[in-house]
Design a protein that fits this description.
- The complex is a heterodimer of chains A (about 110) and B (about 425).
- Helix content of chain A is about 25%, strand content about 30%.
- With about 110 residues, chain A is α+β, with helices and mostly antiparallel strands.
- In chain A, the strands form two sheets. In chain A, strands 2-3-5-4 form a four-stranded antiparallel β-sheet, covered by helices on one side. In chain A, strands 1-6 form a two-stranded antiparallel sheet.
- The radius of gyration of chain A is 14 Å and the shape is elongated.
- Chain B contains ten helices and 20 strands.
- In chain B, the strands form three sheets. An eleven-stranded mixed β-sheet of chain B has the order 11-12-8-7-1-2-3-6-4-19-20, sandwiched between helices. In chain B, strands 5, 14, 15, 16, 17 and 18 form a six-stranded antiparallel β-sheet that branches.
- In chain B, strand 7 and strand 8 form a beta hairpin.
- In chain B, helix 5 packs across helix 6 and helix 6 packs across helix 7.
- Chain B starts with a strand and ends with a strand.
- The chains are: A alpha+beta (about 110), B alpha+beta (about 425).
- Chains A and B meet through strand 2, strand 3, strand 4, strand 5 and helix 3 of A and helix 2, helix 8, strand 14, strand 15 and strand 16 of B.
């Protein structure tokens, strides 16, 4: 079924100089198996078209993925002209994007 | 076990948190983080105006109010509020006249190697703080140390850890990472906020054990929540690869184990490995001046209205350095004026302070000469300086990390 990713996933995002980081986690092993397969770098870029170069890391112990979005914030928070210069709400934007989720994972 | 609390996640955090943490229950150590990358720039500008400043003044006011109480309770205070001037802050605390034994940590300022920078500070580790505490300090203030060092230093001093006790250091680093942003660990800014009472989250506490494992908790009766989910959220904040580099240890975030505990969350299993031979340096330089304004475009012809005002402003001051974004927050046939309106943001970045000021004058001069319904959300100001941040790396052995003890004796760390 088509639902916002945030129906099952939490997220937190922030800044490191000109890069943003975006951590996403879920709360069951079955949800994590789905998340890990679904949320590739390519899929993240579809959901967040403003992303450029992206690194992706898996943290199965936390049922989490961590993304580093390089250069999203330009020269860093004090000089960025971006709408959200510290990427504080990047995670909430991602959670609001709609995805096809197996009903059993709800 | 050592019980370490946090009362600040940034310069500007809840002023009353120091009092709340001291009076809300037992603590051995109270820590506070005041230094973000952006804060270093703000303090750098303070220091340009007055060389005796450059530290977080709020912290001094918090101590004015609470230091006597902390001394009476035997709670040690450890903070990076020294910013660019830890010696100056230590002197100011001495002048409070409460007889506290105040120590400070120096050596992070490496401006001599980066003369073009307004601020250049190496991220020091925990060992300077540990030396100060071992010498009996009641208050330790530092400049740029890693945020987690505020927790690692007290734990290392308490348990007598050595420089190669990497697993214990990594465990305490992870506890420190959970604490460093204050209430972000206890339900603040939390995706599932509707499932807890997030009205006024309490500040976090780590009960660190001799092996570096910890229970994350908060004082009884405070708001928010400490759950596996709230702690997971904070663990994911501002990290990169799972091998989390620090000045004292590399902490492997893919080995962290979280378990529910009757008073919060137990953090265990963290593996550590030797740190790199270099220290990261936070560099801030003045980048120029910035200004911005937001035009409100209501009703019909939103794109054409945006195009008109853009053409007008660019012909007045030139297009260089301007960034435009049109947020289509408007709705057709809306039944409130606000939901009928779109927002056109324009920002200028320029090396020239006069151009930043000319931007606001040009914007205001359009008030009776532009699109129908012209208004702005707030009139633009004169513009403000902005910084450019960058990271650099220097050999650890080249940084003179020193602990200045309460009796004035200096220990090379």
């Amino acid at each position: 079924m088509r639902v916002p990713l945030g129906t099952i996933a939490g997220a937190r995002s922030g800044d490191k100089g000109g890069d943003a980081n975006l951590g996403v986690w879920v709360r069951t092993d079955a949800q994590y198996e789905w998340l890990r397969a679904e949320l590739t770098v390519a899929r993240l870029k579809e959901l967040l078209p403003e992303a450029g170069e992206v690194d992706r890391y898996e943290l199965p112990n936390l049922r989490a993925l961590n993304f580093v979005l390089h250069g999203l914030l330009g020269d860093g928070v004090a000089s960025s002209t971006r709408f959200d210069p510290q990427a504080k709400a990047l995670g909430e934007w991602l959670r609001s994007r709609h995805v096809d989720l197996p009903e059993a994972l709800l | 076990m050592i019980r370490i609390g946090n009362a600040s996640g940034f310069y500007g955090d809840r002023f009353s948190a120091v009092r709340e943490m001291l009076t809300g229950g037992h603590l051995d150590v109270l820590t506070g983080d005041y230094l973000a990358e952006l804060t270093m720039l703000i303090l750098g500008r303070d220091r340009v105006k007055d060389a005796s400043l450059g530290y977080a003044r709020t912290f001094l006011r918090q101590l004015e109010e609470n230091l006597a109480d902390a001394l009476a309770r035997g709670v040690k205070i450890v903070s990076n509020a020294g910013g660019l001037n830890p010696a100056g802050l230590a002197e100011a605390i001495d002048r409070l006249g409460l007889g506290a034994k105040v120590a400070h940590v120096t050596g992070d300022d490496v401006r001599d190697r980066f003369p073009e920078a307004l601020t250049a500070n190496a991220y020091l580790g925990a060992w300077g703080i540990a030396e100060c505490l071992k010498a009996g300090a009641d208050v330790v203030v530092t400049g740029r140390v890693t945020d987690a060092s505020l927790v690692v230093g007290p734990a290392a001093a308490h348990f007598g850890w050595g420089r190669e006790d990497f697993d214990a250091l990594a465990g305490a680093t992870v506890a420190g990472h959970v604490l460093e942003c204050g209430t972000q660990a206890t339900g603040g800014n939390y995706s599932f906020f509707t499932s807890i009472d997030a009205t006024r989250p309490g500040f976090p506490i780590a009960e660190v054990e001799a092996d570096g494992s910890a229970v994350i908790t908060k004082h009884d009766g405070t708001g928010g929540a400490v759950t596996v989910d709230t702690v997971t959220a904070q663990l994911l904040y501002e990290i990169g690869a799972p091998a989390y580099l620090g000045p004292d240890v590399v902490s492997h975030f893919d080995t962290i184990r979280l378990d529910s505990h009757e008073r919060g969350v137990r953090v265990s299993g963290v593996k550590g490995s030797p740190p790199p031979d270099t220290l990261k340096v936070c560099l801030n330089a003045l980048g120029g001046f910035r200004n911005s304004t937001t035009f409100v475009l209501t009703g019909l012809d939103v794109e054409a209205k945006a195009e008109l005002v853009r053409r007008q402003l660019e012909s007045a001051i030139g297009a260089g350095g301007l960034t435009w974004t049109l947020a289509r927050t408007d709705h057709a046939d809306a039944d409130t004026e606000e939901t009928a309106s779109a927002l056109l943001h324009v920002r200028v970045k320029t090396p020239d302070a006069k151009r930043a000021k000319a931007f606001s004058r040009a914007g205001i001069e359009l008030a009776l000469a532009s699109y129908p319904g012209f208004h702005v959300t707030a009139p633009p100001g004169d513009g403000t300086p902005f910084g450019v941040y960058r990271a650099a790396y220097v050999p650890r052995s080249s940084v003179p990390h020193r602990a200045v003890l309460p009796d004035g004796k200096v220990v090379e760390v």
